[in-house]
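Continued from yesterday's entry.
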Amino acid sequence: MHAKRARWRVGTWASVLLIAASALIAPASTAAVIEVASTGGCFRASCNNQDPVGLCDGDAITVASKSVDTPVGYAGQLDLRYSPSCQANWGRFTAAYGKEALKQLILGRLTGGTSLATGGSIYVWNPGGERYDRARSAASTSSLLTLLVSSTWSKMTNGDQMACVGLDLAQATVQSKKLQDFGSDIGSAGWYSGPCV
């Protein structure tokens, strides 16, 4: 009789310990589910070709960066971004000339024919996979807004694999230094490869 009661107690305590261990593990997995749910359900490959803003950018980190140096000088920085909750990557280009160009325009120091790097078409991809292009940018317009671009970013790709970023740099050529007549022609200043991580 005592042996049966002892076995029952050991079995009961083993069950209690198992339930307690499950309770300790469950919050971590529940938190992960909640994090993924807060991203709208986007996770790894399901994030492909989606805009990261408002979806995965809340916990984003820069995992690699590269300066974009052109024959006429430093144009900006190309970053490979990553969201731990979405496990997705995207590219970001921050132009060096946007705010400075606007200042020079307002001061009347830009002359017709002046060329400025203003943004461009940014791409991200997994090697051997599809390339995803920019999600948002004003660099495709021929207006004063072009010079206000400070950051351009791509859509996302699977962050569970190696990801690469590259940029077809846009260059604006100022047609007039008068604010009321301001116009610009947008053209390509060339392809710049960024980091692969």
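--- second protein ---
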Amino acid sequence: MGAEQATRLETTHRSSQSSPRRSREFGEKEPGRRFVLDVLIVQDNRDTLEGLGCLLQSHGHGITLARGGVEARALLSVRSFDVVLSDWQMPYVSGVDLCRIARAGGYKTYTYFIFLTCFGDKEHFIEAMRAGADDVLAKPCSIQEIDVRLTAAARVIGLHRRLEAQNASLRDDCQRQFNKARTEQL
């Protein structure tokens, strides 16, 4: 399934959302404290993929579904996401490979990367973190565990976005001062 089909799945899954949820800005809380995030879910197991999608959607998040690393890589090449929630073991492009691709991509906005995996040992945790993951959740896990991880992701993404805005403002101020200094006489 390619990026175009995944987008259709995203539209299908989002169609049951009420329009106020789609119009919220990042960091705006849903009633009851949840942050709205744009989440890419990457799983090669269709039931797990669609189940996670429905759960996260019911918690107010926008979702896009990718059936494996190849499809996720294609989606990441054309748009950004707040969070990637990825399986570890997938054919062709593993979750670790996808994480490395996401980190090497040089994207303008930060993407929070969470592994959802059956590997709960220290060695896999270290490998995930070295690949650039922000968090690792061992299967099986509850929606509450995913929810608190997404709350943490919203905090980190919010900090990154505020820093990006401050940096842009500083660059603009520096450019204005530079232009002013070039045109004013001493």
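The chain has one domain: 3-183. Helices lie at 3-14, 19-23, 46-58, 69-78, 95-104, 122-131, 143-183. Will compare against the first tomorrow.
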